[in-house]
Fold this protein.
Amino acid sequence: MSKHFARKYLREEVLPSTFCPGCFNGIVINAFLKAVEELNANLRKVVFVSGIGCSSWIPSPHIKADSIHTLHGRAIAVATGVKIVRPDLNVVVISGDGDLASIGGNHLIHAARRNMDLLVIMVNNLVYGMTRGQASPTTPIGLRTTTTPYGNFELPMDVCRILEQTNANYVARWCISNFFKLKDSIKEAFFMRGFRFIEVYAPCVTYVVRYEGKTAGEKIKELFSTCIPRELVDKAPQGKKVIEVGVFKKEDKPGYIEMYSDYRRSIA
Ligand SMILES: Cc1ncc(C[n+]2csc(CCOP(=O)(O)OP(=O)(O)O)c2C)c(N)n1
Ligand SMILES: [Mg+2]
């Protein structure tokens, strides 16, 4: 990130960031802001909403824009309220796998069912990073975490596959190694109507990558070969651990805000 670019979008008073050295959250901030820059989008028309967790610190305090830091798990509930009273604003939720899929899982599914006009970015670092690396609903089988020291035995959930089955208009997953795809996907979803969900696969550098005995750079190199585009997954060698990336769903159905105002007109 150039100095000029950083000064334009980031709050200087919080730099250097409180993220751990090498944390992939910085790549998410960069991809998001590059998308904003390329779209020439006005951040004064954006409200960020986040929950509690390291990834929830991406918008607030880093990005120069209005943001609400909500209770743990309640980002989508608060974002829904903001969108309903200010439908003219673009409401963007950036939170973690714990915040959105664990304690906030119910809100996530129902906002997708309603096709609520929100852009939701879930940073999936595979653990509860902020509280020191406990297993989350997306922790893969076998991963050693602070609460699964002998390896996780619980089946994880694939949030994209679940949301694909809802009324959401847009569902996509990218790895942190797919920087340009991630940036383009944020651009694609930014001004769409309805519920747009982007998962960013970004293993926690401190509690996943370091536990595996790797550096952040080594992990990114590994992700180049484990993150496979959806259309090529069937061709991957049998038994190879792969992360399916790509767009799971793209539709242009009216979102909740439009449906609600049509409904109000119809009963007036
Ligand atoms: C009601 C409530 N329960 C538990 C916590 C403790 N807590 C804070 S952050 C967090 C998990 C965050 O995990 P995730 O959303 O994946 O964010 P990450 O730090 O991994 O980016 C938990 C359990 C809390 N703050 N509030
Ligand atoms: Mg997490």
User: Anything to note?
Assistant: The pocket of thiamine diphosphate (ligand 1) is lined by residues 52-55, 72, 95-99, 123, 125, 127-131, 136 (CB under 6 Å).
